[in-house]
Design goal:
Methane Monooxygenase Hydroxylase, Chain G, domain 1; Heat Shock Protein 90; 5-stranded antiparallel sheet; 5-stranded mixed sheet; 8 helices; about 55% helix; rod-shaped
Length: about 425
């Protein structure tokens, strides 16, 4: 969940709870005030009745006005009643309907006779006023919530726009590109500080990357020259007739080690270029044609190792670097030959969106979690351990999915492509 959404949700829920609680308190407060006013009116009517009895020594006439009714009931000797207020109903004679009301029950003494006095007033106007206040309060709550939603959606989104713009640029940041960060003007101190920090960080990272790339290129270039000289001298030395068998074996070991170091240097340099997307010669290629050509190139190795080739190639068009496609196929097919057994089999299958190379070999399966790690190889392998790592990096570059499985006695490497639009 995004920070703005989380903030909006917490803000709205908190506001809603506060408004509902305050609205409820407000409603009950108004209800209490209006009820207290009705009780005061009933007390005034009671005082008028008591005053009339004291002055005239008799009860006023029972009344039944528009919103008030007074009744008397003679109490028996020894009978009494407590003074109390209560909610009741009031029969409106004019409207001929029953309305909510408030009543006061009290007693008054006329001479030696006690009377039960019931004063009832209609509370319809008070209830209507409370209902109106409640609706107004509810309307204010709804308007306020809508306003909060609008403010959070438009104003806060506008305030957060510099952050999301910077985040978008960070996601698209590539060391190999020369595009600089574009900073949106903002009055928020935190966002200005974030923009300055990101620009400063990108400047340092680009400088470090430039220095590292320069060191790698220079180191690779400088290593190639002495390696080439060593190879040349070893070639000359091997052709010398005065060498003994032991000397020849030692020179051959050195020769093989130098060749392996040269291949390792080239592979690491290629990996660095692939990881930094420095190979840009993408074009439309027919993978089935390229696979057929590659299999013809390896035909002598198939024959020399007694390997039986089975192939099923369907047309497949890809948009990628032909150079990297050649390396990818070369690594997979060469891996299938190198780790095969004498008189083994290799099956190459190319269908829509899927390419697989399966080869016979040792019964033990590879570690599928480490098969594409750098320098991961069998102890008996003479390779650099970078072939599958390079293939994996090429697939990652183009969002292809490379996987390994061991089926029966076959090791299967499968690539699933993203089909061109």
């Amino acid at each position: 969940m995004k920070l703005a959404q989380k903030y909006n949700r917490v803000n709205l829920i908190t506001s809603l709870i506060i408004l509902v609680l305050s609205g409820g308190i407000y409603y009950f407060a108004i209800h209490y005030i209006l009820t207290n006013k009705l009780d005061n009116d009933l007390k005034i009517e009671e005082e008028e009745i008591v005053a009339s009895v004291h002055e005239y020594h008799k009860l006023p006439l029972p009344s039944d006005f528009k919103d008030q009714k007074v009744t008397y009931l003679k109490l028996k000797e020894g009978e009494s009643a407590e003074r109390s207020f209560s909610n009741t109903t009031y029969n409106n004679p004019g409207e001929k309907e029953t309305e909510p009301g408030r009543s006061l029950v009290t007693t008054v003494k006329v001479g030696t006779q006690d009377y039960l006095v019931t004063i009832t007033k209609s509370s319809l106007e008070a209830e209507d006023l409370i209902r109106l206040i409640f609706l107004i309060t509810l309307g204010v709550i709804i308007v306020l919530l809508i306003s909060l939603i609008a403010v959070n959606r438009f104003i806060l989104n506008s305030l957060w726009r510099p952050f999301y713009e910077m985040l978008k640029q960070l996601k698209a940041f590539n060391l190999a590109d020369q595009n600089e960060f574009s900073v949106q003007h903002t009055q928020i101190d935190e966002f200005r500080e974030l923009n300055q920090s990101v620009i400063s960080m990108s400047t340092r990272v680009r400088q470090d990357y430039k220095e590292l790339k320069s060191f790698t290129d220079n180191a690779s270039h400088e290593m190639m020259t002495p390696l080439a000289v060593i190879n040349s001298k070893l070639d000359t030395l091997i052709q010398t007739e005065a060498l003994s068998d032991r000397q020849g074996e030692l020179i051959e070991d050195v020769y093989l080690a130098v060749n392996k170091l040269s291949r390792l240097n080239q592979s690491l340099l290629l990996l660095a270029k692939i990881e930094n997307n420095l190979i840009k010669d993408e074009e439309d290629i027919m993978l089935d044609v390229l696979v057929a050509q590659k299999l013809r190139q390896f035909n002598e190795l198939f024959i020399a190792n007694g390997i039986t080739l089975e192939k099923n190639l369907e047309p497949q068009r890809l948009y990628m670097s032909k150079y990297l496609a050649d390396i990818m196929l070369n690594n997979l097919i060469n891996n299938a030959i190198r780790h095969n057994k004498q008189n083994g089999q290799i099956t190459v299958h190319l269908a829509a969106g899927k390419f697989s190379v399966a080869n016979t070999g040792v019964d033990k399966a590879l570690d599928s979690h480490r098969a594409f790690e750098r320098f991961y190889k069998d102890s008996s392998s003479e390779g650099t351990g970078l072939g599958l790592a390079i293939t994996s990096q090429i697939c990652n570059l183009y969002n292809y999915k490379l996987s390994y499985s061991h089926e029966a006695d076959r090791h299967v490497f499968t690539i699933k492509f993203q089909m061109p639009v």
